[in-house]
Amino acid sequence: MLTSPISSVLLPFWLDVSNHANAIRLHCRPVYLTCTAARSRSSSFTWSSGGGTFELTGAALNKALQYAPTNGMPELTKWLSALQKKMHAPSGNESLSHDILITPGSQDGLCKIFEMILNPGDSIVLEEPSYPGTLAGLRPFDLKYISVETDGGGMRVDSLERAMSKWSPADALNPASDIPKLIYLQPSSSNPTGVAIAPERRLPILQIAKKYDMLVIEDDPYYYLNFAKEFPRSFLSLDNDGRVLRLDSFSKVLSSGLRLGFVTGPKPLVDRVALHLQVSSMHCSSLSQTLAFQLLNQWGVDGFLAHARGVADFYRSQCEHMLAAANKHLKGLADWNVPTGGMFLWLKARGIADTFGLISEKALAKQVVLVPGNAFYADDAAPSPFLRASFSSVSPAQMDEPAPAFVARRDSAVTTRGGAGAKLNAFDSTASGRLCLSLCCCWSVGDSRSAASTSPTYADFVRLCCSYFYAWMSRLVVGLAVVRSRC
Ligand SMILES: Cc1ncc(COP(=O)(O)O)c(C=O)c1O
Question: Of all atoms in ligand 1, which is nearest to the CA of residue 256?
Fold first, then answer.
């Protein structure tokens, strides 16, 4: 008996709990080559490196099993303050006081910040494409999205200026105005584009935020996965009038399962987010904080940076393999920017209006999972020729095509591209060539969104999850409104 029908659709394994009083069995299903995830490679979570093992006993264990202060365990927030000072020491206004709040992942910090600032119907400035977790967190507010274009250098300053030109700076003083209250952006190797906001664009963006009195939400989980050795100046480090709230995460460099992120920003704003945390989860897991602190304390800031450099080097090598495979197999079929860090390659399919149906039906049928571009836009019903491939978990061999025969198949894919009658059966899947093969399948068969399908697909599953997620988020927002109105 399957524990749930969902597991049979998506998961590579499922639990069988039937007829076994004392045993749980793990069944394996055919392995999917997943290029979707923002999951880090587990082998990069090297807990034993650089300091051997550590024990959690006695008073330290007792503390780890107890409640903790809302902002975080003092020893960890102190360690993080030293890190932030080294990496982002705010320039200019020395009187600005910054504070840190540890959150259960930066996703939680983001949602709390949005709930703190936004009201239903407000406007918000977003770079497009954007992180789907943010879009999902914003959806219950029914916002007006002011979309800013991006290119190989991230958010475009001219596009931001154009988007804001319909307001005057004086509108920021008028509570009835619909001028946006905040800009959400990802400065480093964005999810999904893989590229950073160019260093020379950062100050002008901050100045526009200042001109229209907007807060800047700097969501930066990929900061430490920067391929170049030098880190560009963060928005937090450029901020001299207290308008940047920065979110960091340990998910990509220590462990996503720990659920540890931290918000850094002006104390009055961080205090408000802390109040929210106080009445929701109270504080981030003490056990997770203790584990992280033990490790970070053993490493020291320099040891942590050395570890992060090793992780970034691993992803740089993965990226090089992915680019080599793309150059070999996808030239003329798709366009892409070279990632500056992170774990994603953002591809634009040539001659394909929408990758949604192609990925959810054709690629999935070939046991490859990619994310269609529409997931990264506020209007996710609009067709998108883009798709996101993740190079975190696939091996270089899986990225490449081993058989010379593939070239012939690829050529036939090129010639049949866009033709509704393309014969997918002509492509047979080999274990190590599935990524490129499926990409070529996607490229080759044109728009299949209209293709009727009677059996549930991955897309159905994603839609189901999203609808549950939105429903719960809406309930949460309504619940918070009720709590607020009663207080
Ligand atoms: C841009 C972005 N922000 C936030 C998050 C959430 O990170 P965390 O695991 O710290 O909640 C992710 C996760 O993939 C992400 O890509």
Answer: 9
